[in-house]
Amino acid sequence: MPLFSIAALIGVILFSFIGALLYTVDPLLLDANAILLSPSMNHWFGTDRLGRDLLSRLMEGGQVSLLIGFSSALISTLIGLLYGVSAALLRGGFDKLFIVIVDLFLTFPTLFLLLTLVSYVNASIWILVLIISITGWMGTARLIRSESFALASKPFIRILDIANVHPLKIIFKYYVPLLAPIVLVSF
User: Fold this and answer.
1) DSSP letters along 5-57, please?
2) What is the pLDDT of residues 133-171, one digit of tens each?
3) Alpha-carbon gap, residue 186 to 180, rounded angstroms
4) Interatomic CA distance for residues 76 and 66, integer angstroms
5) Which burial class, exposed, middle or buried, applies to 10 when counting CB atoms under 10 A from its CB (0-12, 13-18, 19+)?
């Protein structure tokens, strides 16, 4: 099943990005002579009520959706990873502040927050990526924090702390490889 899912994802990516290079019909072209045509050799998926080609519009929409989805997932995963590991390593006041901030973000309904922000700001792809990233990092951060706390109690991490190994070396050499599967699933 994982291979089928990966193949389907690769197929959607190839369809959206490579297909648009091969099928060069403009998705925004309005053609009054081609309104609501059924699928044919000229318009493989037909046309809409404004005469626009549906296949090229599907490819264009796929590009935008994939760009927004992957970009916002990457940014929110990185923010969640940064805050989750930092809360587990620094503990104390930073961890308490982390819990308060995450709980505060989780109390707002994400959909209404997105709609409110988009109504005040001109919506572009990068604004949507930023808004989705800002509202989507909390679950990853909580998951990473709990796993980082479990790792911090391991004997080899405690020995590294006692030996005064630099925290960045501990993070990149030990935490990141052990947290990678969780981060990938969260992404």
Assistant:
1) HHHHHHHHHIIIIIHHHHS---TT---GGGTTPPS-SSSTT-B-TTS-BHHHH
2) 888 888 888 899 889 888 888 898 889 888 988 888 888
3) 10
4) 15
5) exposed
